Amino acid sequence: MKALLFTGVKEPLVYTDVNLPEYDDTFGVVQLNAAALNRRDYWITLGLYPNLRFPSVLGSDGCGVYEGEEVVINPSIHWGNDPRFYSDDYYILGMEEYGTFAEQVAVRKKNIYPKPAHLTAEQAAALPLAGLTAYRVLFSRCQAKAGEKVLISGVGGGVALLACQFAIAIGADVYVTSGSEEKIEKAIALGATGGVNYKDPEGMKILQKAIGGFDVIIDSAGGDGFNQLLKLCNKGARVGVYGGTAGSWNNINVPNVFFRQLSILGSTMGSDAEFGQMLDFVSTHKIVPVVDSVFGLKDGNEAMQMMKESPQFGKIVLRINS
């Protein structure tokens, strides 16, 4: 089969013929129609990820056909029995096991789920990792509810966009931040109430005065801006954190956290049960993941370059067999 092979740090992915690794009868082979890129794949190519393996096939998200039915793949492997956190054996599909940047992938049968019927292959491929992460941080961890004021930082990325769409779907009053005015406008077109450019400190202050505070904030950046987000919290607010692209938190006003009874909740990926719940939620609310760009499998390095530059609003997808 054709696949994109990861052969070394900061080396281009190699479009070549590979064989599926050996597998037992607990696995099924999915004929892939589409796969989506995640920031994780880009970090791996830079060597910024533990336990690198060469050669390997990256890709955590995939949609294809298994036993004549359209399916999506749960990329969460060995979560374990405790819903509060993953087990010591946990990992994500792609690298540890050959992933979805290929014409076929062998995955555990229990990780194969029916594709939401209203989605195309490309839209469904954009859902698994980002959808699972967004669902857990927004609902399992932060317990977001209808009518609450929710702020999603860095809208435009896959997880942030789906968290935005999920919160809108339950009837929350959703606001966003971005470094791009265009991305803010696109989020408003999806149903967000408003947004602000996080590069404008005055804009953040204006947002606070206009809104009065947020009940739930979802953040993936961290860094110096995290304290500013905490200033936007109502008493008893929950702050969900699923990433740290801007680095460590600095200059946190600790009394602000305990006097306002704030909860800072770390979250990453999710359990098998949450994956099923996320798919049901998407099907019930007819949520359509935003796909920014579609490339052919052989053009995977162009797709990875786009991930590096981050101009996209939504997911970058590889079309494979469809």
CATH hierarchy class name of the largest domain: Alpha Beta
- General shape: globular
CATH homologous superfamily title of the largest domain:
Medium-chain alcohol dehydrogenases, catalytic domain
Q: Which spans have pLDDT < 50 for at least 5 consecutive residues?
A: none
- Average pLDDT, rounded to a whole number, is 95
Taken as a percent bin, the fraction of beta residues is 25-35%
Largest sheet: 7 strands, mixed
Number of strands: 18
CA(first)-CA(last) distance: 15 Å
- Tell me the structural class: alpha/beta
In helices, the fraction of residues equals 25-40%
- What is the radius of gyration computed over CA atoms, rounded to a whole number of angstroms? 19 Å
Order of helices and strands: EEEHEEEEEEEHHEHEHEHEHEHEHEHE
Task: Classify the fold: give the CATH topology of the largest domain.
Answer: Quinone Oxidoreductase, Chain A, domain 1
CATH architecture of the largest domain: Alpha-Beta Complex
What's the number of domains?
2
Please tally the helical runs, counting DSSP H or I stretches of 4 or more residues.
Answer: 10
Written account of the structure:
- With 322 residues, the protein is α/β, with parallel strands linked by helices.
- It folds into two domains: 2-127 and 289-319, Medium-chain alcohol dehydrogenases, catalytic domain (Quinone Oxidoreductase, Chain A, domain 1), CATH 3.90.180.10; 132-266, 3-Layer(aba) Sandwich (Rossmann fold).
- It has ten helices and 18 strands.
- It has helices at residues 39-45, 121-125, 128-141, 158-169, 181-190, 201-211, 226-231, 254-259, 272-285, 300-309, and strands spanning 2-6, 14-17, 27-36, 56-57, 61-66, 69-73, 76-77, 91-92, 104-108, 112-114, 149-152, 173-178, 194-197, 214-219, 233-241, 263-266, 291-296, 315-319.
- The strands form four sheets. Strands 3, 5, 6, 9, 10, 17 and 18 form a seven-stranded mixed beta sheet that branches. A six-stranded parallel beta sheet has the order 13-12-11-14-15-16, with helices on both faces.
- Helix 3 packs across helix 4 (158-169) and helix 3 crosses helix 9 (272-285).
- The chain is globular, with a radius of gyration of 19 Å.
